Amino acid sequence: MRVMFVTAGYLPDSIGGVELHVAGLARALREAGHEALVFSRTGRAGIEHLQTVTDDVGGVSVVRMANTFEDATRLDLLYAHPGIADVFMNEVARFAPDVVHVHHLTCLSATILDRLREAGIATVMTLHDFWMGCPRGQRITASLETCPEIRLSKCLPCLRELWPHLLGRERDSSISAAERDASDLALLEEYHATIQRVLGGVDRLVTPSAFMKRMYVDYGVDPRLIDVVENGLPTQRWKPKAPELLDHPGPVRVGFIGSVLPSKGVHLLLSAFRRLGDPGAMRLDVWGEVLPFHNDRTYGERLEELRVGYESSITLHGAYDNEVLPELLAELDIVVIPSLWYEAYCLTIREAFLAGVPVITANHGAMAEAVTDGVSGLLFEAGDSASLASALRRLVDDAGLRQRLAGQASRVRDEADAGRQLLELYDRLAHSPSA
């Protein structure tokens, strides 16, 4: 079987949960004797707009298309770009896939899904986040207010801040504020109508958690189109640490690992850590690159301010190589996932499980689905630094509890198992796209 994966970025240019998941699926399919190709957007220098380059990553052919946004003069060209769809369909014609599995379309074009349906090609899409319905992707505003439902009156100021040249006064200063609001709301209505239409035309949708299925059903997607397929990890890569190693002399080692963004709540973790007082009893290691949060590039400076007085016990390490992740986790006694956004699956929770390190995480979204409080980890009230500090204190002070919560590796699905389930879906769709 020939499977084409579509994603907004790919290794080694872009390293994140979606990219690692796609790489794992491609690896599992190749090991099962099938052929995989990845189509991805790239921001590499020296490649002109809509040009492609092809390289090999781990034995998988990767076609990368440049999108410089130089022609994105209207809002619809950010999500429904005909030129991008044309380039993509040329690659589809060349590779002739049996199934196309779309993983992310940010920086690409949602109308790729229309074109695949028109061509009669079996298509699966995994909804890894909220980009299909929320251009920010995380259902959270720049001021870090979560959005459990879509309300255009709330979307409008949020997206004007993100794209002032496409919405609001900068787009058209010649009309009244009321006329501008009506025009911009019409643009957002057109966006949602497009997204809902293309989602409804996909043969099968996949979510990595039941939580995400509920959110997309609430958005208007037919629940009969959605399968919940939990992501898999390369479990053989990990060797859980012995629980007794979590009880040792010296400071308890607390860690955060992942993209350092406001929506990931790293500032909440630093604030909670400071609430606990004695900086000598614990050590906090933050591993991950500080990334821009849309128009905000000050997050690293704000985190440094939270380190003042705790410089000897709080370390911001910066970016890390994913290959050394097992070693980084092996040095920790507690992993904290303080995300303010809901998370769609949360790879870090599973990586901590595999490493044999107990987890503290927020009690909403897919995180609450992955962790049973007091059984497979501890939950705290999302967004509440006092609640997080209380959970930290409980786990820091109780080595026995750390040991009891650490043995969760069996809860993690192997990527080969996930690959087999998806391969069964691909085979069913390839032979009967209406399945």
Describe the structure.
The chain folds into two domains: 2-148 and 187-232 and 415-431, 3-Layer(aba) Sandwich (Rossmann fold); 235-411, Rossmann fold (3-Layer(aba) Sandwich). The chain has 14 helices and 14 strands. Helix 8 links the parallel strand 10 (282-287) and strand 11. Helix 7 runs parallel beside helix 8. The strands form two sheets. It has an eight-stranded mixed β-sheet with strand order 3-4-2-1-5-6-7-8, sandwiched between helices. It has helices spanning 17-31, 82-95, 112-118, 152-162, 177-200, 210-219, 266-275, 299-307, 325-330, 347-355, 365-370, 385-397, 399-406, 415-431, and strands at residues 2-7, 35-42, 52-57, 60-66, 99-102, 122-126, 204-207, 226-228, 252-257, 282-287, 314-318, 334-337, 359-362, 378-380. By secondary structure, it is of the alpha/beta class.
List keywords for this structure.
alpha/beta, 435 residues, 6-stranded parallel sheet, Rossmann fold, single chain, 14 strands, 37% helix, 8-stranded mixed sheet
